[in-house]
Amino acid sequence: MSEKQEFDSRLQAVLRRVYGEQIALASANRLSGGASQETWLLTLSGTGAPDTLILRRAPEGMEATDDSRAIGLPNEARLIRKAAATGVAVPEVVHVLEPDEGVGEGFIMSRVEGETIARRILRDDEYAKAREHLPAQCGRALAGIHRIDGSDVPRIRESTGLAQVEQYEQTYQEIGVCRPIFDLAIVWLKENAPKPLAPLLVHGDFRLGNIMVDEQGLAAVLDWELAHYGDPREDIGWMCTNSWRFGQSEKRLGGFGDVEPLLEAYAEAGGAEFTPRDIDWWDMLGSMKWGIMCMGMYETFRSGADASVERAAIGRRVSETEMDLVNLLEGQRHA
């Protein structure tokens, strides 16, 4: 029996544990993921179960470690279930993998129909109505996320805005490349840090690419592995970061809308009342963070640690974030 056949056999046993012996795994096809985390489309036959499901897994030996920013897939599943209980649109978690099942660490969830590719969401006519609805829908979703009590979920850490500035400054210094606009942005962020708010659960990577969108708008919030306790403005500012507008820079919110409708819906759904200027600092933080991440990805390519074209291509985007930081700093100077 091949390794793939053994994997399929174990996965079928898991599905039968959940749905009964009448279920068979027709196919398991890997969709995406890196070396440490994978996404699979499962097609089932038989009665009493959905036709398709999604498996998120880390193979044995590739689980998130304690020093990782990721909370680990079992904890991600717990947060998704909590999000569903607060009314946030998420996939249904149908099973969390057990160690004795031999499939790795992860969970099986429902398949949500829609689109995650930003270029299509922002440009295709079939998502025109969705783009109108998304700002308010995202505001309501974030209000729900920020209400989640994750106190009983392990490995959710606290990360304030200033702590992230210090973290990424250290990474920048370790990379050892002098890019003056990042030095200036770091100084500005330290000198203009807003008064911190009481930490709430934040998604940590709320943006196009990590939400499922259908023709009516927000269908599901995905990819919760970077959830942590922090300032709720962080999630809003991250979606406003110019890199996540995917070329539609005139629309501050994700390239699809204005931030004001999100802020209004967020407050109406029980979140705090913020103004667009309250998000400016977090917008700057987002561009600084992503730029330094891009530097790090190029460094892994340059060093040979990961010689993939993807790492090199992302590394080239540092210059985009430099221009974003110039524009943001100029905007603050004239504000």
From TrEMBL:
Keyword Transferase tagged: yes
Keyword entries, A-Z: Transferase
Database matches in CDD domains: ACAD10_11_N-like
Pfam families: APH
Molecular-function annotations in GO: transferase activity
Aminoglycoside phosphotransferase domain ranges (all copies): 29-268
PANTHER family: AMINOGLYCOSIDE PHOSPHOTRANSFERASE-RELATED-RELATED, BLR2944 PROTEIN
UniProt name for this protein: Phosphotransferase family protein
Native source organism of the sequence: Henriciella barbarensis
